[in-house]
Specification:
heterodimer, A: 111 residues, mainly beta, seven-stranded mixed beta sheet, four-stranded antiparallel beta sheet, 11 strands, B: 113 residues, six-stranded mixed beta sheet, five-stranded antiparallel beta sheet, 0% helix, 59% strand, globular
């Protein structure tokens, strides 16, 4: 099993551009999450999903959108990128018992 | 006051030393996680515990629910243990539909050879 796979690992965007961070898991987990990690801060939840077709906002959803058309995929869309979205983004999945499996992270810089 | 506090902020140790990293929290919880993040790398879950103690290899995690405190111990430390160690707590309001995890800022551990 590959676990949780995120792409791209690094990306530089200009202000106002849009992009999608991809996240795929091959463990058949129903629960998937997107977090952002800022320097000196704890991880913050952006969006989460409890199954295909179901998504909900976390603590910091503004400026982001998600979709969950399949159990495996949970892409995070950034519309009109802003410098405040410069961060490291982590996708995670869970079988529902509280255990978490994280991806390798995607480092995004908005200039 | 942050819901999750970790101490010390940074820690340097010599190879072979016994290391303790602490986590205190202020809310009622159903579980606590210890996570490891190597520089530039992904996050790996080390332990999830709700009571007592768990051991995996050279790592031991303990939790005292009454005192709202957890410790992560590393025995016979090695330079490859150098990483950021993050404590996260799952609040009692967790219903299974929302992973309401509150994360600490993490402790940076450096183990010198």
């Amino acid at each position: 099993n590959a676990g949780v796979t995120q792409t791209p690992k690094f990306r530089i965007l200009k202000i106002g551009q849009s992009m999608t961070l991809q996240c795929t898991q091959d463990m058949n987990h129903n629960y998937m999450y997107w977090y952002r990690q800022d320097p000196g801060m704890g991880l913050k939840l952006i969006y989460y999903s409890v199954g295909a077709g179901i998504t909900d906002k976390g603590e910091v959803p503004n400026g982001y959108n998600v979709s969950r058309s399949t159990t495996e995929d949970f892409p995070l869309r950034l519309e009109l990128a802003a410098p405040s979205q410069t961060s490291v983004y982590f996708c995670a999945s869970s079988p529902g018992n509280g255990e978490l499996f994280f991806g390798e992270g995607s480092r995004l810089t908005v200039l | 006051k942050n819901e999750v506090e970790q101490s010390p902020q940074n820690l340097t140790a010599q190879e072979g030393e016994f290391i303790t990293i602490n986590c205190s929290y202020s809310v009622g919880i159903s579980a606590l996680h210890w996570l490891q993040q190597h520089p530039g790398g992904g996050i790996v879950s080390l332990f999830m515990l709700s009571s007592g103690k768990k051991k995996h290899g050279r790592l031991i995690a303990t939790i005292n629910i009454q005192e709202k405190h957890s410790s992560l111990h590393i025995t016979a430390s090695h330079p490859r243990d150098s990483a950021v160690y993050i404590c996260a707590v799952r609040s009692l309001s967790y219903t299974g539909a929302n992973s309401k995890l509150t994360f600490g800022k993490g402790i940076t551990l450096s183990v010198r050879p």
